[in-house]
User: What shape does this take?
Amino acid sequence: QVQLQESGPGLVKPSETLSLTCTVSGGSISSYYWSWIRQPPGKGLEWIGYINYSGSTNYNPSLKSRVTISVDTSKNQFSLKLSSVTAADSAVYYCARISWFPGSSWYYFDYWGQGALVTVSS
Amino acid sequence: DIQLTQSPSFLSASVGDRVTITCRASQGISSYLAWYQQTPGKAPNLLIYAASTLQSGVPSRFSGSGSGTEFTLTISSLQPEDFATYYCQQLNSYPWTFGQGTRVEIK
Assistant: This one.
């Protein structure tokens, strides 16, 4: 059974860089795409971006100038860095696996981590 | 960006009720739509992808339909564990976006 686990600081100061890592167990990080999604407390979901097994990325334009997603296949991990954070970046951050119906572009997020609450505050 | 508007935003229903949630896209997205269920304090859980394909392990009382700009999620007989918030997501074009959510509560 595939499992994902987010890790990283729960408190980040304004203007600093938020860093989170997602560790994948029960399956290889290769052959899939991997994504970050966030959810401010009491609000809806926002897709941040994804990275594929070869390292190609796609970011939400609303965050693109501040986001970097990277992958470390040797550790079965992928990571998120979000720079110049403000209070508006306070949220639960989820990592998720992206799968697709074979031979199609029907993508979906089939495995999610439990989420990591990150608060931006001095 | 493609906007997804769910209706209603909130609904109150009883166990055994048939429930329908609508998701409307601001432009056509073919059938590149997924539905998720989220309970408080938990991560979203995939219910349906490609608008109407039931994810493995999801009870058959859940079904999805639609294409283009209008989609529905139907729960044929609401169970106690179904009280949650439901989100639609479009994966037709970047950035991928979610609806604002529909909260289903016990009447």
In short: Chain A touches chain B at residues 44-47, 58, 60-62, 94, 96, 101, 104-110, 112-115 (CB under 8 Å). The mean pLDDT of chain A is 95.
